[in-house]
Amino acid sequence: MDNLQSRHTPLQLFSKEMSAVITDLKCISCCPRCILRLCGEQNNEVFKNTNTQDIENMIESLQATDSKTEESKMEVQENVETKNTDATNSSTPICPSCLGLLQLCNDEEFLKKIVTSVRNADYEFCKFALAVSAPLQHHVREHSILLYLQERHGEIYKDITSDDFIPAKDVFKWVFSGILATALKVTFVPLFPFDINLVCSHPETDSECEQIIGETKVSKPTRPGKKRKLSPTRNTITRPAVMTGLYRHPTCEKFRKVLQCPPVSPKTMIDCHVKCTHGSLYVAGRYNKYSRELSQTPWILDDGERKGISSVEELLCDKLKIKLQEIGRASCRERV
After folding, report:
1. pLDDT tens for residues 163-191?
2. Contact 144/152 with Cβ under 8 angstroms?
3. Each residue of 42-90: pLDDT tens digit?
4. C-beta separation of 131 from 195 below 8 A
5. What value, to the nearest 5°, has the Cα angle with vertex 130 and ends 127 and 131?
6. Range from 185-189, 254-258, 279-283 carrying the lowest mean pLDDT
7. What single string gives the DSSP state of each residue in 205-249?
8. Cβ proximity of 237 and 213 under 8 Å
9. What's the rounded Cα separation, in Å, for the pair 47 and 33?
10. Torsions phi, psi of 273, nearest 5?
């Protein structure tokens, strides 16, 4: 326990003061891994534990059963009870911080969905890297919870910013990468040309980003008399815009004029879809062309008529593709 404590800066997870913080986070339905994140846990080995019950037991052991903790629990439950009336009625509510992302780590159905999507992408690979694109609502909700903790536990969180917390998507990658590697029977590598990208979205809370941004100021044109042309489909909901909007709401009082603080549990779980990509492979070499009737690339006219029998590209690339596929299959058989 002492070794873990030295990793938690500036928050001290194993201090008595954090007991009331954990109680508050549990009362607003934060999941176990988000509780550890928001309490300053930095040790990835703690998050990598795939047994959620072990993490819950760890959190229970950190809570002290003193009168201050019980009073805090009763007070938070009274404040949050009315806000959560429209939330999910399931036995395990969806986490208001990660929107259920970290709760999917141990979901068998979610794992089957991802494995099926990767296999349907029809890639042959022995190793993979995992990337996660989290929705911008994560920043909004984490900021809301931080303001809430600063209001209730100012002596602990007065100098804390969102940058002091491990992002939920990083925790998800630590936990889910090993689970996915076992299911696919391949090896996970942090950096590799073949990339499995999980693109996450949460339509239910999309409006939160729009509300926190508010009116977006359009920058003045750089040249006098020259109007700046903007595409009508231009997306104004960007990370810099959201972070600027959060900067304009540094306290709970100002934040509550726009959104709820702390945030409530959503009705729906975060949605993820898979996008597989592979880095480009470059092959360099020399060749001699002895026919002027052979074009460099396929020569096809607008009406579909083809000029020439073949091309240098087709003669070389078709054979390279066959050879690379054979090498890939042999390599997978040797390593699996």
Report:
1. 889 999 999 999 999 999 999 999 999 99
2. no
3. 888 888 877 778 888 888 877 654 444 455 445 544 554 444 444 444 4
4. yes
5. 150
6. 279-283
7. GHHHHHHHH-SPPPPPPSSTT-PPP--TT-----HHHHHHHHHT-
8. yes
9. 7
10. -125, 155
Q: Give the C-alpha distances (Å, rounded to integers) separating 227 from 14, 76, 219, 222, 231.
A: 58, 52, 11, 9, 13
In one-letter notation, the amino acid at residue 108 is E
Encoded tokens for 83: 């806000």
Radius of gyration of the chain (CA): 26
Q: What percent of the chain has pLDDT over 90?
A: 35
User: CA triplet 159, 165, 168: central angle to 5 degrees?
Assistant: 155
Q: CB–CB of 243/233 below 8 Å?
A: no
What is the token pair recorded at 41?
Answer: 């846990």
DSSP state of 85: T
